[in-house]
Structures are given as structure tokens and as C-alpha cells.
Design brief:
Largest sheet: 2 strands, parallel
Number of domains: 1
Order of helices and strands: EHHHHEEEHHHHH
Strand order of the largest sheet: 1-4
Number of helices: 9
Number of strands: 4
CATH class: Mainly Alpha
Distance between the termini: 53 Å
Oligomer: single chain
CATH topology: Arc Repressor Mutant, subunit A
Amino acid sequence: MSLEGAGAVPRGPRKLTDPKAMRAVAHPTRLALLEALNRREPLTATEAARMVGESPTNCAFHLRTLAKYGFVEEAGGGRGRSRPWRRAHIGFTLDDSAPGNPVAAAALSTALWDSWLERIRRVGAVRHAFPEHWGRITSASESVFYLTPAEAEAFQEELTALFFRYRERLENPSLRPEGAVPMELIQFTFPADALHDTED
């Protein structure tokens, strides 16, 4: 169930500029709660607790903290741990250009990378047990491209445009065709030589 519907205002990605908000969300349980809400919303603290492996009391605290910094909002109805929550935005981007932001953005980036890498490790450990049709499309690859900085930026923009082809389904569950399930693509892009330069 979701409050999104025909004519609803899309909850596009939020551009994070506030270091306090960056530090607030850079917590494993809070990131896990946002991921849970990506898969299903609204969620009460009790429902979220079953999905993220925390206690309802702990989830209620972290959901209130996320609400304080504008990441989630009440979905209406219920009280206490029975209060349903939904995302205020569909994801977020980081702005580390403002004064005071680089440290907070770096901390959040590290928390996100740790979360993604741990999830990839878990998938790798259990993918052998996936049904055949899911096993075929659960993949990992590594590629190297020789690109100028301008070409690399254009490449990222093209990939983003491809991903956004399906974003409306995230915002509005009524647009999801029968049989659609949440698919996650975790992508890391970086200049390979920069890694070696920092190790010298």
C-alpha cells in the first residue's frame, strides 16, 4: 500500500546540502530503514523491525530521527509503534561543495559504500540458491573504459537517463506491471589510476 496515486506529486530525489542531515542519515539502521521503505511503504516501526532485524523500539526512535531531518514522514493513521511512515523523497544526492560539507559527505559516503558492499557480499553468498530465472539476471561485472573527464560525465548522464526510465514505478506502485519485483543495481565508477596514486 502506498499513498502515491494518480495525480500525486512525485517525491523526487532530495539534494542533501545540510551537514547535520548528512550526519543524521549516516547510520546503518537509518539507512536500512530507508532501504526497507524503498521495498514497501508505508511501514510501522514494528513492520520495519522485522525487515531490518532491529527491535520495534529502536526502529521507532530511528524513524523519528529520520523524520526530524526530513527523510521520512507520517503516512497518516496509527499511533506510537503502529504509526505508519513513508519516504519524504525517492533517494538523495550529496552536495559536498558547501562549506563544512566535505567531512559530513565523506562520512555518509563511507556508510553508504559499507552498506552496499555488505549487501553485495550477502547476495554473493546465497545466489546459488536463487531460482534459475533470478540466478541468470543476478550478475557482477568489471569493465575498464578509457574516457576523458567530459566523456565520463556524459557516460554517467546516459546511464542515469536509462535508470530513470523506470523511476516512476518506484514513486507510484500502480504503474508496476504484474510480476514486477524490486531489482537493485549498485554501481561504482572511479578513475582506476587514482586508486594506485593514493597507494604510492
